[in-house]
Automatic annotation (TrEMBL):
The lineage of its organism: Bacteria, Pseudomonadati, Pseudomonadota, Alphaproteobacteria, Hyphomicrobiales. GO terms for molecular function: nucleotide binding; oxidoreductase activity. Pfam families: GFO_IDH_MocA (PF01408). Keywords: Oxidoreductase. It comes from Rhizobium leguminosarum. Residues 4-119 form the Gfo/Idh/MocA-like oxidoreductase N-terminal domain. This is Putative dehydrogenase. The keyword Disulfide bond does not apply. The keyword Oxidoreductase applies. Belongs to the Gfo/Idh/MocA family. It comes from the Bacteria.
């Protein structure tokens, strides 16, 4: 099949490490153009992957069939409406916006436009994670504990970006943790939070089936590498999994690319879509409000 022409919004570290090489690798996609608020960064990244840097977001829309977003959440929320109105398929980042209001507006315009969309909850594209979830779902879960602790926003950290330093772990790590808890143990009916996401934040979730899950989150703790993992306790014993880490499962990009392309060709949104992301962000907002944030 002819590769799908993809435009990339953003040229920062994560776009360089993950999004651009993923879409340039093909064969399902062709990275054709890049636009970023920093034109020099866009030029450099485009040259690296045989794409072209364009001068405006609207030129990017004219250069592609689908858009991949690798920008801060508030920037994503600003530009998605025009992309959805232009009928472009969308590969979105989490969180959808910096506030629940931004996330709701973004989800509304994407749903109203009816465009194919998918969200980069990277753990969910790992075969190891999918096997773990299937294992847990075949049993009766009682409770779960997860940890997601690192020093990514400490000075000199690769992910010490302004929005992460301001908002902390809840909006960055929280979607991954709640998504796994919800997928493994079932729908969340109550969520409580405590602490400061800029240093250390604790989550407690109650699930529809009565199971309880808990997790500490931190982007600002000096540890060696990352302290991550999930332990689910079931009626048949314990099931464990490590999160894939900052750079993800090395096989996940090919899965993301293939499933995004398949969704575009079928005309149907991926299961991990804007509504899933909005559900998670609604729970994160409740956790923040319960902690007085």
């Amino acid at each position: 099949m002819t590769p799908i022409k993809v435009g990339l919004v953003g040229a920062g570290p994560w776009a360089d490490i993950f999004h651009a090489p993923m879409m340039a690798a093909g064969p399902e996609t062709q990275l054709t153009a890049i636009w970023a608020r920093n034109p020099a960064a866009a030029e450099k990244l485009a040259a690296k992957h045989g794409a072209k840097a364009v001068a405006s977001f609207y030129q990017l829309l004219d250069s592609c069939e689908a858009l991949v977003f690798a920008v801060p959440p508030d920037v994503q929320a600003e530009y998605v409406p025009a992309a959805a109105a232009a009928g472009k398929a969308l590969l979105l980042e989490k969180p959808l916006g910096l506030s629940l209001e931004q996330a709701n507006r973004l989800a509304d315009v994407v749903n109203e436009a009816g465009v194919v969309n998918q969200v980069m909850l990277t753990n969910r594209y790992s075969e190891r994670v999918r096997t773990f979830l299937a294992d847990v779902q075949s049993k009766r879960p009682i409770g779960a504990i997860a940890t997601y602790i690192n020093g990514a926003i400490l000075p000199g950290g690769l992910f010490a970006t302004p929005w992460r330093r301001e908002k902390g772990s809840l909006l960055d790590l929280g979607p991954h943790v709640i998504d796994i808890f919800d997928a493994a143990l079932g729908p969340v009916v109550e969520v409580q939070g405590a602490g400061d996401p800029r240093s250390w934040f604790g989550l407690t979730l109650r699930h529809q089936n009565g199971a309880v899950s808990q997790a500490p989150l931190s982007l600002a703790t000096p540890v060696e590498g990352e302290v991550t993992g999930v332990r689910v306790f079931t009626d048949q014993g314990e099931v464990t999994m490590d999160f894939v880490g900052a750079f993800g499962d090395p096989k996940a990009p090919a899965t993301i690319r293939a499933e995004f392309s398949a969704a575009i060709r079928s005309g149907k949104p991926h299961d991990i879509n804007v509504n899933r992301a909005l559900y998670l962000q609604t729970l994160l907002d409740k956790a923040a409000r319960s902690a007085g944030i």
